[in-house]
Amino acid sequence: MFGSFAPFVVLAAAGGVAAGIWIRRDDLPETKDAAVLVVLLYAIGLIPSVGLWPVGPAIALLLTALVSWRTGRLARWRAWFRVGRLDGVVCAMVVAVAVVSVVALVIWQSLLDGQLPSTYRQLTESVSPPAAVAGALGFAIVNGAIEDSIFFGVLLTPLLRQFPSGVAVVMAALAFGLAHSNGVPNGLVGIVLAGTWALMLGYLRTRTGGMLATYLAHVVADATIVAVLVPPLLAA
C-alpha cells in the first residue's frame, strides 16, 4: 500500500513535519516516536507481501514500540493508549459516526461500484467461504486497532502538543485520507471519504482522551465493508 505514489507523498510530508518539529523541539519524545513510525511504515510497505495492510503497519507499530521502550519513551504511550472518558454524549456520537460510515460506504458501493482492491479480492476468492468470512471479520477487528494507534495515537499525539487541537486533527485526518488512496474506498473518492471520516474519529479521540470510542466507530465501518463487499465475491 505504501509503495504507491500518493502514500509516499503523505509519508514524506509527515516525515518533513516530524523532522521540522523535532529540530524545533528536540525535547519532545513523542515526535521521535512518530518519526520512527513514519520511516518504518514506508520501508516495510515496500516489501512484497510483508508490506500488505495491515501486516506491514502492524510490524512497523510493534518495532516503533520496541524502539520507544528501549529508549525509555514507551510509558508516554499511556497518554493515548487507554479507554478514555465515555459518557452519553460520546456514545451518541459513536453511533452517529457509525451510521454515517455505513451510509457512505453503501452509497459508494452502490453508485460507484466500489470493490475490494485486487489483492484482497484474490485472497478472498482463493480460500473457502468460512475462511474468507473469518479472515474478513478478523481484519475488521484488528485493522481498527492498528490504524487508530498509528494515526490517532503515535502520529496525532505530538501534533496535539504543537498545534491547536483542530489543526492537529485536520493534519492527522489528511494523512489518514491520503494513505487510503489504495484502500477501501480507494482513489480520490476514497481519500475524501476516509479523510472526512478521520476528522470524526480524531474528534472522538481528542474529546475522550482515549481510543475506545474511536475504535468502536472504526470497527463498525470495517465490518460494513466486510458485509457489503465480501458476500458478492463468495457468491461468484
Lay out the secondary structure:
Elements: H1 5-24, H2 29-45, H3 55-70, H4 88-112, H5 118-125, H6 129-154, H7 156-162, H8 165-179, H9 187-208, H10 212-235
Helix pairs in contact: 1-2, 1-8, 2-3, 4-9, 4-10, 6-10, 7-8, 8-9, 9-10
Summarize the structure.
Helix content is 76%, strand content 0%. The chain is mainly alpha-helical and 236 residues long.
What does it look like?
- By secondary structure, this protein is an all-alpha fold.
- It has one domain.
- Helices cover 76% and strands 0% of the residues.
- It has helices spanning 5-24, 29-45, 55-70, 88-112, 118-125, 129-154, 156-162, 165-179, 187-208, 212-235.
- Helix 1 (5-24) packs antiparallel against helix 2, helix 4 runs antiparallel to helix 9 (187-208) and helix 8 runs antiparallel to helix 9.
- It starts with a helix and ends with a helix.
- Mean pLDDT is 84; it is low at 1-6.
Could you describe the largest sheet, including whether it forms a barrel? Answer: none
Query: Measured on Cα atoms, how large is the radius of gyration?
Result: 17 Å
Overall shape: globular
- Overall pLDDT: 84
Number of domains: 1
Percentage of β-strand residues: under 5%
Fraction of residues in helix: over 70%
Distance between the termini: 26 Å
**Helix/strand class:** mainly alpha
List keywords for this structure.
76% helix; disordered N terminus; 10 helices; globular; mainly alpha; single chain; 236 residues
